[in-house]
Design goal:
The chain has helices at residues 3-10, 14-23, 29-37, 43-50, 79-89, 96-108, 130-142, 148-160, 179-191, 196-211, 241-250, 260-269, 298-312; strands at residues 110-111, 117-118. A two-stranded antiparallel sheet has the order 1-2. It is mainly alpha-helical. It has one domain (3-312): Glycosyltransferase, CATH 1.50.10.
Length: 317
């Protein structure tokens, strides 16, 4: 790896540095684990944890008595999305403030008999939504939530509502899986300890995405949505090829040539100095910007380099 590029990446936030050390520089575990611990006390992670309200939530109007306030809305400063962002940064499990936020989701969300969860009045959906269920499962598992019952219920829901095509859809009765929900489910299930049922579900979900070459129609080859080819910071639920490639890279998925088109898009967007810019984030309020507009992004650059390394250096069988 180019020394100047490595130095620039290591000047970034602890959330970036520990992943650079682990995935790009092959640093000893003790080194990157120590850097990872700093997420809770320095930089982005500390700033997000510092914005938590005394109730354990983020995003709820002060003094509200609404049971669901701040659990899922507003985007992207609510409890769900703040915890999801912290999980993507790699906040180590067991953080007390993150666990307090998790308890708010479990104690004030509504669990259906199916195992799905709603973070709003349950009359809206009879069984819950796969997308929200997946996000809650990911943040509980990533933070080491000590009660196994909600994790088991949410896992059961995802396993039982995987579509025949291998993916998932937020709306349980749609005819075809969605890219958005499939990747959310994959990220959630991959956070769990390995098990035969979840491993099989993850393999089928990956196959759904790869059958579509990560962003194309499997019947016409056309790009499904232009936004799938963008590379924003990963703050919400939206799918893009970089998030999909990062899933494959971080979970050490087998090399697959069907990712070539997506890899080619990343390669073309690389700046002459080896870095990448972040594309515009989804609309909605954010706690703070992770990347300055039009400036190269360390987080995006890390993830692009990790994706290229995964594609170019297949994991040994």
């Amino acid at each position: 790896m180019d020394a100047d590029l490595a130095a620039w990446l290591l000047e970034g936030d602890p959330a970036v540095r520990w992943q650079v050390q682990r995935d790009l520089l092959n640093a000893p575990p003790a080194e990157w684990q120590a850097e990872r611990e700093r997420i809770a006390t320095d930089g982005w992670g500390a700033a997000l944890l510092g914005r938590q309200q005394p109730t354990g939530r983020w995003g709820a109007p002060p003094g509200t008595a609404n049971r669901h306030a701040g659990l899922y809305n507003p985007k992207w400063t609510s409890t769900t999305y703040t915890l999801l962002l912290l999980a993507r940064m790699g906040l180590p499990p067991g953080n007390e403030r993150a666990l307090a936020g998790c308890r708010q989701l479990v104690e004030h969300g509504h669990f259906f008999p199916s195992g799905g969860i709603a973070l709003w009045p349950p009359a809206r959906h009879a069984d819950g939504e796969a997308c929200v269920t997946a996000m809650v499962l990911q943040v509980l598992a990533a933070n080491g939530y000590p009660d196994p019952a909600p994790i088991a219920a949410l896992t059961r829901f995802l396993l039982e509502h995987q579509f025949d095509d291998g993916g998932w859809n937020c709306r349980l009765h749609d005819a075809h899986s969605s890219f958005n929900t499939t990747l959310l489910a994959l990220d959630a299930l991959a956070t769990l300890p390995p098990a035969a049922a979840t491993n099989a579900a993850v393999a089928r979900g990956r196959e759904f995405l790869l059958t579509h070459r990560l962003f194309r129609s499997h019947t016409t080859g056309a790009v499904v949505a232009d936004r799938f080819t963008r590379t924003p910071d990963p703050i919400g639920w939206q799918y893009d090829i970089l998030r999909a490639l990062d899933h494959l890279a971080t979970t050490r998925a087998p090399h697959d040539d069907r990712a070539a088109d997506a890899i080619g898009i990343l390669a073309k967007r690389r700046l002459p100095d080896g870095r990448w810019r972040a594309t515009s984030p989804p609309s909605g309020a954010r706690h703070f910007a992770l990347t300055e507009p039009r400036e190269p992004s360390r987080w995006v650059t890390l993830r692009c380099l990790r994706a290229l390394r995964w594609y170019e250096r297949p994991t040994p069988a």
